[in-house]
Structures
1.
Amino acid sequence: MSEIAGKMSIQEGAKYLEKPMMGRGILLGGVPGVAPAHVVVLGAGVVGTQAAKVAAGLGANVVLMDINLERLRYLDDVMPANVTTIFSDIQTIRENLVLADLVIGAVLIPGAKAPRLVTKKHISEMKPGSVIVDVAIDQGGCVETARPTTHQKPTYVVDNVVHYCVTNMPGAVGRTSTIALCNATLPYALKIANKGFEKAAAEDPGFGEGINLVGGRVTNSAVADSLHLQLQPLRGRGAA
Amino acid sequence: MSEIAGKMSIQEGAKYLEKPMMGRGILLGGVPGVAPAHVVVLGAGVVGTQAAKVAAGLGANVVLMDINLERLRYLDDVMPANVTTIFSDIQTIRENLVLADLVIGAVLIPGAKAPRLVTKKHISEMKPGSVIVDVAIDQGGCVETARPTTHQKPTYVVDNVVHYCVTNMPGAVGRTSTIALCNATLPYALKIANKGFEKAAAEDPGFGEGINLVGGRVTNSAVADSLHLQLQPLRGRGAA
Amino acid sequence: MSEIAGKMSIQEGAKYLEKPMMGRGILLGGVPGVAPAHVVVLGAGVVGTQAAKVAAGLGANVVLMDINLERLRYLDDVMPANVTTIFSDIQTIRENLVLADLVIGAVLIPGAKAPRLVTKKHISEMKPGSVIVDVAIDQGGCVETARPTTHQKPTYVVDNVVHYCVTNMPGAVGRTSTIALCNATLPYALKIANKGFEKAAAEDPGFGEGINLVGGRVTNSAVADSLHLQLQPLRGRGAA
Amino acid sequence: MSEIAGKMSIQEGAKYLEKPMMGRGILLGGVPGVAPAHVVVLGAGVVGTQAAKVAAGLGANVVLMDINLERLRYLDDVMPANVTTIFSDIQTIRENLVLADLVIGAVLIPGAKAPRLVTKKHISEMKPGSVIVDVAIDQGGCVETARPTTHQKPTYVVDNVVHYCVTNMPGAVGRTSTIALCNATLPYALKIANKGFEKAAAEDPGFGEGINLVGGRVTNSAVADSLHLQLQPLRGRGAA
Amino acid sequence: MSEIAGKMSIQEGAKYLEKPMMGRGILLGGVPGVAPAHVVVLGAGVVGTQAAKVAAGLGANVVLMDINLERLRYLDDVMPANVTTIFSDIQTIRENLVLADLVIGAVLIPGAKAPRLVTKKHISEMKPGSVIVDVAIDQGGCVETARPTTHQKPTYVVDNVVHYCVTNMPGAVGRTSTIALCNATLPYALKIANKGFEKAAAEDPGFGEGINLVGGRVTNSAVADSLHLQLQPLRGRGAA
Amino acid sequence: MSEIAGKMSIQEGAKYLEKPMMGRGILLGGVPGVAPAHVVVLGAGVVGTQAAKVAAGLGANVVLMDINLERLRYLDDVMPANVTTIFSDIQTIRENLVLADLVIGAVLIPGAKAPRLVTKKHISEMKPGSVIVDVAIDQGGCVETARPTTHQKPTYVVDNVVHYCVTNMPGAVGRTSTIALCNATLPYALKIANKGFEKAAAEDPGFGEGINLVGGRVTNSAVADSLHLQLQPLRGRGAA
């Protein structure tokens, strides 16, 4: 689903940059002779990568930021030429937010709350009519001024910056999402059906990490930390 | 402005394919493991070319149709690999409309009415929830069921197909459009300022063709044909 | 050698699609104005990946199917834009076989028999003159109607579908194959020469897995399963 | 049809480079770790361009030779990175033939005999098992040792070089060829039907040039030169 | 030779951006995690196009500026994604010079003096250690502070901006230049040898335009204007 | 820093191929109609990969050599089409050195001396005026004739081959290097600050391997081997 959210975030951002949508009245990809938009993607995981790829496909100048250098190296190998990878720190984030027409918040830590990378102060320094899409909203958002919205009323404006913070974004493209979800979960469903979840988890630590709750016990450490509950790991879970 | 309309047409089409917008609930570019949308672009002029390029950039499978083989050859050289050029005739149009998730009507003949390539019957055979964007609406539209709409209420539904027929589409991205328009018209404005339009037109036949009305006379043949008025060509206008 | 078989499979498929070869009389890559062929590649391992890359290079529309989502994600990053990745299940396989001009069977499980993904019924529903190349024929084939052929008489026809099932395909490009084989085996040969195979296998589990028979004992589990013989693992073989 | 012949020439060349076909036993595109074939394309018109594009798509190293510098510049803009354009002269032709695994003769002058760029001596210096495809064979061939062959027996060997000189190559992919031919000729057929050929030719010099014979008179200068007949131009034919 | 100068200009610019060469100490293409240089190319003719292509190939963010919108459209079709085309006017030039690490002056009008697009004031506003390469120096330069230099001492510094203004740049890569020059001039030499220059010029207006001086008379209008001499056109020279 | 050295190596090589720099007078990327340079990169690690990418971006024909087949496969997926991967052995190295205009020595083994792949004899067989850049010079060089030079006097000539062997190449682009170094080391610095190096090394074997000396003891085996000192591994260091 992350891939869908990543791709949709640019599609939505492009739409809300239109003037009747309260945006700057800018075309994401520019046209020959007119510069394209500056898109900043915070986080180079699955969401951020797909967002960057789509924005580049539309013709925008894209900056993709992360602190995982190994990941940035790989992306430098496979991304289109109009994606620049930047190591993310307080200074580079601020420098890029000031220039941005569209910002995608894509910093998600599995099961944990998203870190607040974009502050109120950052928002106040952004260009009027710029758009921010916070894909991390389901984990609390990585933008300080973000609060959950719906597909019925997807945006609101803070300090002249349009905020799009729809929870469950992929719901809008249900046909694509349903197929994608089946594809991703089928192997796990088959394993559970064949072996029972305890055996499946014991054999495959990655599988076990996906199990958050067992009979009322919290078995995933990120979830436990985030909700301040006690962690009770699964037996037989691998060390890795 | 054609380039802007072409690029916007895909952006709008992608948005209205979403379920809350009455579309099929499909993500234009698909995701790994799920097929992308099938986009049909009718007309390979400036509008259609930009539309095809953007749709391809988003990851869709694109069919670009035209009857100008020379143009299709050039586009085959420069378009991304997921754009297929098809020679347009009654049969190939129908074959492709039946498969389409998104159709862009981009058949414009300068100054003349657009030909009606997509009929009511075609529309009735399209998939429910598919979207059609008629960029030719300013010249009467190339879709039989098209009627002008506005940015306030951009779409309506006929036979389960969402129609987007906003006149003056580039108005929504006014900042980009204004710069593009200045770039395109500046050289002509300078010529008129320096020479007067009569001398400018006499020296440059292409310039002369852009002059539609002079002191009440219709000087452009396409305009004259289209409005059933008498043509009175400019003196000194080139033969080409 | 898998890479060579993968690349060759498309070259052969393109050739046997020609009319004098009993094929549909279709050019794989199309030409400007005429749609290219629809190529379906079953399996996204080394064979299938190379096949997809070459078919895309020729200009075909390619569908690459697999059940490994992680692999499909990587391929989505690095494949040309005219390759679509589809999660493989009974329904998507059938949908794509019906449309296919060329099918590449590339589902190989190391040392084991290939699963029969394409049935007699599928073949009967394919277009007349379409071509199927079963690269998995050395492990029994992933097409029900496949039986081994030779470079001398490489094809036969079942239900109007041309079958190409040459065992040892890379033999036809011996010069390239010989170099490739040396490159791939040299490091192992050096290890055996320097350490003896037992020590080499003990130190490098991946190496040990490549040893199928030792003094009459079957030491590889996939081979043992496939031939219904008893497995006698190497001592000192790693756990991975 | 030139586009089809160009694309097919590589497909055939790749096939006849196989060992059982008398070729060098080389895979056109190489594999990781093994160098690809060296393909030389003589002539950068429609045939040569398509041949170069397909060979590059397969992964070969391609040299595309011509004497039209303007054309080479355009091709340098749009060709894949593994196509090198070289200005064609006696020395560069020879240097490249010596290195070639596959040579495509694509020097066609409309209506005239093809120039003999590749001589017997060149052939004798080529690598054993290399392949030469003379697409210009319908106009007499641009290879001295070329003589027409058929799809039934397409090749013969001279000085260890495999010659493929099938006349009417596109006949083998009849389905694609028929559609392509219709697309290309339809506009002319419509003009003749609407206006008669004389009026059509008078209005459109390019059209007039396509008329070779009128009531027994040779009206095309290249045809007249080539067959040593007297030229009797069409009246009303443009000067261009 | 323009192509060589264009390509070399980036190679030189990259070198003189190094710290020991007095430049900013910046790597043109950046590395994963560090932003690349901002390269501004003034003029999108042959020189500017090649410069932009090479800079993009090195990984820089490139802005290519011109006032010919038709040309910008074509370049938008064929340039890599990290080249942005911008319509050139006083404001956009200044905006981009301020951000530039490397500026290429590539505004050449055949035979005429280059316009002074970059003024002393612009230079004073540029970043310390940035580099400017004025390829137009042979026609007087398009940078106000430019004065001719040599391969022996190629650069000097004005207002902390490194100036590279070597006349006859292609001389440094004599081997490539000699071949390129032969290729470009051979057709003309053959025409002169076969027909004499007067007949050749009469038949081919483009050829005639290349003749600047005949028996002491200035026959080319741009040259005449530029040197304040009287123009005496060739007889039989075409109107175009 | 390896990435910077890799990218710079091509930039330097291109510069020193110029005639006034003692090189062959060749433009790395060629121009339309003139073949580009042949660049050989020895070693496909980070340095070699970046070098190959940049050389390809400039338009050269690039051969990238290594003995790690898995790595060559990945590079074949992500490199531009004008990079050919070749499995490196005595014969292929020699074949390619003879043809090379520019050679990049990029064979580095972390902490150990670089192997001497290019011998005096190889150098004597290379083309006059060709250039060799030995990036491995900091570990002793992989070219027999290499000896350390400085940015002040970066090159010398042996057997007509220009040698560029500057130690600490990235120093010339200090601004880029400083940022890159911070990005790469920041996570380690934070770990040391938070945990002390002993705990950090115990928890993360990869981290531990980066520690070469502890209180006078050599803790890294490659360093110990290379300097013939005794190895005293860190306690708590992982087995991997």
Note: Residues 12 and 219 of chain C are 36 Å apart (CA to CA).
2.
Amino acid sequence: MGSIYGKIFQISTFGESHGAAVGVVVQGCPSGIDFDLDFIQSELDRRKPGQSRITTQRKEADSIEVLSGVFEGKTTGTPIAMLVWNGDQRSKDYSHISDQFRPSHADYTYFAKYGLRDYRGGGRSSARETVARVAAGALAKLVLNQLGVKISAYVSQVGKLKLNTPVEQLDLSLTENNAVRCPDPKLAEEMFTYIDEIRKQGDSVGGVVSAYIQGCPVGLGEPVFDKLHAELGKAMLSINAVKGFEYGSGFDGVALKGSEHNDIIVKDAETGEIKTLTNHSGGIQGGISNGEPIYFRVGFKPVATIMQDQDSLNEKGEKITVSGKGRHDPCVVPRAVPIVEAMAAIVLLDFYLRNKLIQLSAL
Amino acid sequence: MGSIYGKIFQISTFGESHGAAVGVVVQGCPSGIDFDLDFIQSELDRRKPGQSRITTQRKEADSIEVLSGVFEGKTTGTPIAMLVWNGDQRSKDYSHISDQFRPSHADYTYFAKYGLRDYRGGGRSSARETVARVAAGALAKLVLNQLGVKISAYVSQVGKLKLNTPVEQLDLSLTENNAVRCPDPKLAEEMFTYIDEIRKQGDSVGGVVSAYIQGCPVGLGEPVFDKLHAELGKAMLSINAVKGFEYGSGFDGVALKGSEHNDIIVKDAETGEIKTLTNHSGGIQGGISNGEPIYFRVGFKPVATIMQDQDSLNEKGEKITVSGKGRHDPCVVPRAVPIVEAMAAIVLLDFYLRNKLIQLSAL
Amino acid sequence: MGSIYGKIFQISTFGESHGAAVGVVVQGCPSGIDFDLDFIQSELDRRKPGQSRITTQRKEADSIEVLSGVFEGKTTGTPIAMLVWNGDQRSKDYSHISDQFRPSHADYTYFAKYGLRDYRGGGRSSARETVARVAAGALAKLVLNQLGVKISAYVSQVGKLKLNTPVEQLDLSLTENNAVRCPDPKLAEEMFTYIDEIRKQGDSVGGVVSAYIQGCPVGLGEPVFDKLHAELGKAMLSINAVKGFEYGSGFDGVALKGSEHNDIIVKDAETGEIKTLTNHSGGIQGGISNGEPIYFRVGFKPVATIMQDQDSLNEKGEKITVSGKGRHDPCVVPRAVPIVEAMAAIVLLDFYLRNKLIQLSAL
Amino acid sequence: MGSIYGKIFQISTFGESHGAAVGVVVQGCPSGIDFDLDFIQSELDRRKPGQSRITTQRKEADSIEVLSGVFEGKTTGTPIAMLVWNGDQRSKDYSHISDQFRPSHADYTYFAKYGLRDYRGGGRSSARETVARVAAGALAKLVLNQLGVKISAYVSQVGKLKLNTPVEQLDLSLTENNAVRCPDPKLAEEMFTYIDEIRKQGDSVGGVVSAYIQGCPVGLGEPVFDKLHAELGKAMLSINAVKGFEYGSGFDGVALKGSEHNDIIVKDAETGEIKTLTNHSGGIQGGISNGEPIYFRVGFKPVATIMQDQDSLNEKGEKITVSGKGRHDPCVVPRAVPIVEAMAAIVLLDFYLRNKLIQLSAL
């Protein structure tokens, strides 16, 4: 359990880090979508290891293969299965940890829960499973693009280096221009240098990915438990290494007064559209989108794998030393940007579809 | 849609702020639980309005009534329906806003989504629906108590007044001793005074509720999407006015290095239990509980209802002035404490049940 | 578990035969439906005991009460809670069976499954829970009516007395004219006499309810597991005392050849509509409605409660005699007619809503 | 939607008849199961085309490939993805029907529902998708075997040739000895001859598959909607070409009196076990298994594909002649036997797991 997500646009993922393949079956994708395989591959390439010297040097081709649900270039409305074969597995890299519990990894909890575990590269707990998220998210993006919804994520913090510019003043088209995926070129350079230092220390560091969603129609999100931001929060928190989620004014909004925080509703003099003067609500009110841009922040911890010796236990409960080996990311946020976008796309499309069922007059 | 929560211990809630009743049908509650109605009522009393002058002065008896699923004092394994009749409704208080969109409320989004809305007291979007959460959560607590799990929430911030003491050094038995529900008596007084000032200004202010869970067994939570903290995050974010969620080291952990953040695994010399020296993980690794205390923080915005005039629009799109009337909370966090506990209980019990199905040897 | 049904139009039911109330929370009902309480009550009246001397003589007012989700006569899109208070409970009628396992009842299986049970009138296993189905089904009918879908059920067999007239030659408006709910007045009389004899013998007898659905649009039903007839089958089989379900040609179709069974597709010369010359398919092909009338048969066993002494065991495993007492139906099918219609309505509306999400061009 | 089945042991299937592959992702399979790939392959071989001259002559190797969830020969508790590549596709066989609606096929309904369709061999509506069911069902059987549950299906009717021997008097070990899969060798021969005649006529004929389940523990099944037989019914009705389902006394039970039909409960003098003297209940009472053998019958129509010319329409609504080509089964029931077993296994394991959550004392 745990590997299914979504209610209408529903994905079921599978695969271990060093198993045969990782993949996803997408249920509930509408028929008639132009299936742009190149776009899906390009999203996977954004997530791929080995993009620069500050990401893991593992080489994985990560070529997407489509097994079903597409006919003559269009989705047919039936399940779409996609997978990526695991190439550069190097399982022997991990044989030395076959009975070790690495600190702050999922080794111990998986072992305790299941009674056994695929220890190679973290098995199912590895961030390699995000390949499936990015593939499914790319498909969701294809649909959302046709509906006018645009999702942009970017790195807004690495360690203590924080981007303080309001998102409206950023040029988000610059995000993909640097290896860090920070739209402020100067700060991006500082971040790069800092991550590279951390890498040389054999250490790791955390960061924040921010997301900004434009063109989302009014009405997405459901009352009570399935509020739009609640589901976005779950989606983000389910990504490996995420420790926090906030949207709109977030934790900073706590210290404000209602009279400062409330977003005054006005009518645009020209277009006649209803909008708000400020957007502390982050585009969501009462759990339902109000047409303003949606924005949120996702906090990632420093990844647990470091190239240093650490005390720990093995499966027998004996004291051991876990020594840092293998090839890992010193800072996960640059590669997390497409993953955040993918999960946001999956949530938004699911809610888009759920919202079609609401009014009698629309049936 | 949106009013069902949980996979095994599954709740279906209903009710508008000024409708006949609010309530819940609980599916999947195990049979044989001693059904302690007094305890459930006492939890509702902690949530009830009118507890002090810093909470809304609405008078609601909020007496719980049980319609099914209990026989001779024990749960029977069949659905348990519970409801609270809405007493002090004063619907006329709201007639003046029948076509108004109050700023940062859900009036506009509900109207746009559904084409009509129950405007009385916010209808379904009112925090009155949390009555159902607290009732279901109290039932979950009854089960968890028998399983040794203890959930404690408390107010850790009001506006800029922040409790910085680590939770291990707090005496959480003091939480219920003051109207603010802050376990630090001195800070609680400051917070009370501050909220009272805000109240006199006709304004509102935000705050933070922290939660601390002891006795949670190893193994709760599912890989990938249904990580324990992801579901806790969704549960908390679904509570009215919540803007952020973080667990363990949270957003502060972002700035740490892996070598600082990793929790070293050790064996307790006396008990032989596996534990960690630090707990930046917040009791959850790879989405699965590791037996350490679980802790998290939930950020609440200042509530949107204030006793001041604000510009806005009505349903026709005409400019209006929304004037502050009615009886509302200047700061929502004191009454949110039992709600946070309730949602945590619902999530934990659901995952407890899901975890029973994992190993062949346990079947 | 087990008391939730539907994916979009989703009902959650509760209540024991002799508990406080039976009821339902309906999630996912579209907003803007004219909520006709009288119609819902009239459907419950069709199911009510005591309608004639061939149904149980229990007196139950079965007045429906609506607690939420309706405002100014229209559904609001939020959960609709409805309940019926249990009036004429006479619990003492059942005290003598508190530890008895009645033959072919659910007494033993509930006790074994849950470790305890509400023995009064069968508790949750009583057909009294169908009150909730009929209420929710009536609501579904209100929506379907506006969409042009008409569901008619009728009694087509009692014991060996079988209605052989093809449905197209029946006048279904006659169904409600007699206590048996058989549209053939002459056969209805014979059936009435037969059931009355069975009643006098203190025995019971089975029967068949047939259903006929007109106006169902093309496209309802989902491929593979959620085929329209598969879900209709589950819905019918979930009704108390049902032993079999067949649609279209059913079990008789087994003996046909493909060349006899296939429904030739033609275009209506006048309307230009696509239809089939015969309808062995029962209006469903590949699990998806094709626009032809949908029809199916539901077989009910003789109810287990009879007014005769029977050998059995009690909870301790001791031999006992179960003596027939209480007030029960000698033949369940006349009162099952509205229940079959209700379940059909719930399934069809759910599939109607699910079908809105299919094509990109419809989003 | 529609391709996901089960609540805990949950399968998500994919694949078209002439796409790249058909497969399944199984979620919720317990960890620690000995994964017997040979057994799974042997089940697929029972379903495979080309087993005798009365089944389709298509040649498909149908080799199962496992992509995830298994490590060192055991299930790990994570999703198990299995697939079969489509080999002998011969897509050109179908080019002539690319715009044709074949009578009593799903061509028209899929086209109407989705706006386009993969016409090759029926695409997703082809019975080829049952490969995924059999693979997942074989896995479920592996678990059930360890729990002592044995599922046996067999052909009990072909056309009008009907097996009337009660199941208790049959030697079910003979089922696999003949191409028809009828445990009565003499009748099997008659059936074979009859099917072969039908084949020579270019026609098809229907049949019935019966199932018999031994060793099912007391307590499987949930009250109200998820009754064990209701879910079994849905599972069977979801198989291609199925028109009816009955369990226990079935439609024949309709004509019985309660005094004849009730199963008297007794204690076995030797074992002390509670059992019933007769088993009209079919092993299920109140929707919950009572420990007696479960048995049911599944009616299959004659398959729609025949080797004869038939009138029909094309996508433009023009009159055409559909001519019989390709390679198909004159009678589907011999190959349906393993499919019925597979679906029964999936349902039973899912309910087995759901039943572990019931009593507090078991938590």
Note: The interface with chain A takes residues 1-4, 8, 10, 12-16, 19-23, 25, 27-28, 31-32, 65-69, 71-72, 74, 76-81, 83, 113-118, 123-124 of chain D (CB under 8 Å).
